[in-house]
Amino acid sequence: MSQYSEEHFRLRPSVSFVPLPQKGTYQFFLSDIRQSFNLAFADGTYIEILSKLDGSMQFSEMGEAYGLSGQQLAGLERLFDVLVERCAVEDLRTVAPRASDPFRRVKTFIASYVPYHAVEAAWERLSDSHAVVIGAGGVGSWVVSMLAQMGIKNFTLLDDDVVKPHNLNRSLFTKRDMGTLKVQALERMLSERRKDYYSVTPVIEKLESSERLLSLMKDGLHSRTVLINCADFPSVAHTSAIINETAFALNLPYIIAGGYNMHLSLVGPTIIPRETPCFHCISYGMDQLKLAEIEGAERIVKEHRNLGNLAPLAAISASFVANEYLKLLLALPNLKPTMIGKRGEFNFFTKKLVLEEYKMWDKCPYCVGGFK
Amino acid sequence: MKKLSEASAPELRDGVEVFLFPRNGDSCQVLFLFLSNRRRLRIECKPAFAMLLKGLSKTQPLADTLKESSLVLDDETSAFLSFLEGEGIITLADPLASGQLPTEYVEQYKRQLYFLLDILRSPQKVHEVQKRIFDAQIAVFGLGAVGCGILQQLCMMGFRRFVLIDYADVEENDIARTPYRTASQIGLPKTLAAKALVEDLAFDPVVRLHNTTLQTRTDLDELVQGTTLMVNTADEPYVGYTNIKLSRYALQHDIPLMAAGGFDAHLASLGELLVPHVTPCADCYATYFHESLKDWKPVPHPVKEREGWFGGLGSLSAFSASTAALDILTYFMNPEDKRVVAGGRGEFHFHDYSLDAFTVERDAHCQSCGEGRE
What are the distances in angstroms from CA A47 to CA A19, A66, A82, A266? Predict the structure, then answer.
C-alpha cells in the first residue's frame, strides 16, 4: 500500500505545468517564489494525470482510473515523492482548512519551500516565535508591522521615545499617536489588527548595556527568540555591540537592521552566534575596506544632525529584516538566511541590492576567542 | 547664489560627511560623502579652505569662520563657498524655510526635505518638488496589498489628495498584507478603510471614493478628473486588462500611470511607470510579453478556483509598493526629464534577493502610442 493512498493530490494552484520544446519535458513553475524545475517524462500517462490533478481523486484510485500497470504505479509513487518534496503538489484535504485561515497567504508562501504535510508545523515555528525589536523608529516600526503580518505573535519592544510629527514621514505611526510612547503606539497598532492575538511586552527604555538587556531577557526566555537591532543611538555600532554580547551569552540569533539614520539604504547582517561571522567580525572587515578610502583623513562631524530619510527606504530595509526573520525561523536547508556574513547596499535608483561578504575574523574575541 | 556677507552663517549640511586628508605641499585633498545616496566627491583645495570647512561645521557667523581660517571674503573665497553651495555641501540659510508650504507640513516632512536636498542639492528645487507633491491628486485603482501599501507611502511622502477606487470589502485575511485595522474593519468597503488610513497619515487630506470595479463601460473622466498621476493595482478582471484600459486613457489625457507590480501571482514583482509618449505604454508591454512568452504555454490549470491560493508576505508586497513609491517620487523630482523612469520591469527573488530586471522598449508600431495609432 502506498504512503499516499489516502491523499487527494492537486497541482498547487500557484504552480504552472508547462511543456518545454524538448519532447516529454515539462517545467514546474512555482510562481509565488519565481523558481522552477524541469522533469522529463518517458510515459505520457503521467502527463495526463498531472494535467487533471485537481484534488478530486484519491491517489489509490489513480491506478484503476488511468489503467496503470504495477510498474507504472511504482513510477507514479516515485514521481509524487519528487513533486511533494519540490512543493509542486499538495493534498487537498490537508490544505482545505486553510481557505478560512487569516494567514493563509503566508502559509501558502511557506508551502513553496516546505512539503504540504509540514507547512502547519513550519508556520507554528514561525508564529510562535519571539521577536525582540530594539528601537521602534523608522525601521523598527515597519519591522514590527511586517512580522505581525507574517503571524508572529510575541514581541518585546524596547524604546523610550514618544511619537513626534516629524516621525510620520517614515515610521508607521499615525496622527492619533502624537505624544504617545512609540512602543505603546505599536502595541495599539497590533491590537487594531487582531484583538488578543499579539502579545507585546513594552520596555520603555533606551538600550544602554548588555547586562540590562540580559536581565530583561533571561526570565522565561522563549526558545525561538530573535533579537533585532533597529536602534541607532548613539550609533548602530554601539547598540550592535551590546546586542552581540547578549546574543552570545544567551545563544540567540540576531539581525542588524539597516536603514537607520546614517545610512538609509543599508541592509544589515544576520548573525547566529558561533556559526556565522558576528558583528565584530563584520566591523573588522568593514574597517579594512573603509581604511583604504579614508586612511589618514580627519573626519569633520557636526554635533547635532538632522539627516534625511524616506518612507520607501525605511520600508525596504525592514522588508529584508522580516524576510531574514522568516528564513531564520523556518531553518530550512533550501532557504538559509541570505544576509549571513553579508552586508548590503540597496541602490534606490536601480532597485538592486549589492552585497559585500565578510568572513569570520580569525581574532574575533567572540567567535574564536572562546567567549562564554 | 545668495549674497554672502560676513554676518551670514553658512553651514555644513547635515547629510554630508567631510574627510580632510593631510596637507600635501600647497594643497589638501578633501572627500565629501553624501549620506543619503552615498555620492562621493573628491576635491583638492588650498589648506586654508580645508580649515574653512572645519569652521563651517560650527554654527557661527562667517566672519568667525573666516578669521579661524585666516581668510577674507574675497572673490576666491566667495567662489569656493559658491561651489560648496552648488554641490549641496553647505547651506547659506535655513533650507527648510519656505513661503510655499504650511509650517506644520514642513515640520512633518522635514526629514524627507533633507533627503531631497541630498539628491537635488538646492533648497529651492526641494521646495518646488514638495509643493508639486502637496498639490498633486493621485488616483489609486485597487486597494489591496500593494495598492494600499503605495497609498500609505504616498501619504508618508507628503501626498494628500487622493481618489480611491475599489469594489471589495476588507476581509480577515487582509491582516497578512495590508495595514488596515482588520480587528474592526472586516466587512467595511476597502475605500473606507483606505480613507481612514489616509486620514491617519496625511497632512490635511482630501479624499474622494468610488466603490466600483473597472469595466469596459467605466467612465474614467468621472473617476479621475483633475488627476496628476494614476496608480493601478486593480487585478479584476485581471491586471493586464486594467492596465491597458487605464494606459489608453492616460495616453489621451497625458497622465502618467504607475502600473504597479506585486499582483496576486507574484507579490514581489516591480511595476513600471508609464509616461505617455515617453516610456512604453501598457499595450507595448502586452505586445512584448505576448512575443517573449509565445513559446511558454502552461497546460490549462486543473484547479479551476485558484483565487486566494497564491502565497505572499507583507514584506514582499511592501517591497513592491516601496519601489513603486520611489518611482513616483523620482517622477515628481524630475518633471522636466520624463526619461528618468525608464521602461522596464523587475522580478525580485526572495531566496537570494537578486533582482531580475529587464528593459522594455516602446513598440514603434503600437496601436496606442506608436506609429500604428489612429
Answer: 10, 11, 14, 47
Closest CA to A141 of A352, A372, A317, A342: A317
* Chain B residues touching residue A32 (CB < 8 angstroms): 265-267, 310-312
Nearest neighbour of A353 by CB, restricted to B115, B157, B353: B353
B323 touches chain A (CB under 8 A): yes
Distance, CA of A261 to CA of B355 (rounded, Å):
25
Question: How do residues B345-369 score in pLDDT, each as one tens digit?
Answer: 788 899 999 988 888 889 999 999 9
Contact B303 A10 (CB under 8 A): yes
Polymer length in residues for chain A? 372
**Domain spanning B136-358, CATH class:** alpha beta
- Residue with cell string 549571513: A340
- The distance of A352 to chain B (nearest Cα, Å) reads 6
- Band of the pLDDT at A265, cuts 50, 70, 90? confident
Alpha helices in A295-364 (DSSP H): 311-330
CB contact under 8 A, B116 and A301: no
- The closest CB to that of A308, out of B36, B153, B266, belongs to B36
Per-domain residue ranges for chain B? 11-91, 136-358
> Tens of pLDDT along A56-88?
999 999 999 999 999 999 999 999 999 999 999
Query: In angstroms, rounded to a whole number, what is the distance separating the alpha carbons of residues B238 and B267?
Result: 15
Q: Report the length, in residues, of chain B.
A: 374
Interface of A with B in 95-124 (CB under 8 A): 99, 101-112
Among A151, A193, A185, which residue's Cα sits nearest to residue B185? A193
Q: Average pLDDT of chain B?
A: 90
Specify the residue for cell string 486588462: B241
Hey, what's the torsion of the CAs at B355, B356, B362, B363, to 10 degrees? -160
Instruction: Using alpha carbons only, give the angle B101, A169, A160 rounded to the nearest 5 degrees.
Output: 125
Which residue of B351, B352, B355, B359 to mutate against A (max A Cβ within 10 Å)?
B351
Q: Which domains does chain A have, with CATH numbers?
A: 9-101 (3.90.930.60), 128-357 (3.40.50.720)
* Model ipTM value: 0.95
